[in-house]
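CO-FOLDING WORKSHEET

Operator: S.A.
Ligand of interest: coenzyme A
Run index: 172
Mode: holo prediction, single chain
Checklist:
[x] sequence pasted
[x] SMILES validated
[ ] output reviewed
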Amino acid sequence: MPETSIISLPPERWRDVKQLRLEALREEPAAFASSYQDELAFGDDVWRARLTSAAQRDGNMTFFAEVDGALIGMAGAGWPSKAKLRHVAEVYGVYVSADMRGKGTASRLMRRLLDELRSLEWIEKARLDVNAESRAAVRLYEKSGFEIVGRALRELKVDGRYYDLHMMELHF
Ligand SMILES: CC(C)(COP(=O)(O)OP(=O)(O)OC[C@H]1O[C@@H](n2cnc3c(N)ncnc32)[C@H](O)[C@@H]1OP(=O)(O)O)[C@@H](O)C(=O)NCCC(=O)NCCS
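OUTPUT RECEIVED:
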């Protein structure tokens, strides 16, 4: 069985990241606020920038799961520079390719992401929004220590269908 590594990536790997992210948006339109069409229009500089600002104030970090040189999963977080908000990290972009699910990969990605966030002294909590119908994702986040703190009704509209979102938080 090939091993799955949890890694961060240099900006030179932006094409691999673009491919995985567009796969996520195309295959799971009800899981993300962005659409495939939104991000298909991004220029190369936007993809590169997603891999460059780790561990800075007003920054972001993303970890990837790789098997035999191919990316099969990702989990990211970002935080603002505004003084009143910079203690809150927003978790986003959590995805594992369909044929690789159910093997603990997303759990490992979340553990690594949360460990790194915890090590940044100005971050005090993590938050996220998740489709209330995504049982696997809600279970993943509960298992990672998040709790549901609210529900936004009919927040996401995909192909004419509405979905509620759970707001979830983890206090470090
Ligand atoms: C959510 C997702 C990332 C989970 O990836 P994964 O690698 O399969 O997750 P794991 O194997 O680490 O499993 C995490 C937990 O979810 C549970 N789970 C997995 N599939 C499930 C399902 N269909 N229903 C209920 N629970 C499920 C697992 O059993 C595990 O909990 P356990 O350890 O208590 O058994 C993956 O299903 C995915 O990419 N979904 C589409 C995109 C998405 O919804 N992203 C979240 C955006 S907010």
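REVIEW:
Strands lie at 4-7, 60-67, 70-78, 88-96, 125-131, 147-158, 161-171.
Residues 28, 31, 94-96, 101-107, 130, 134-137, 139-140, 143 surround coenzyme A (CB under 6 Å).
[x] output reviewed
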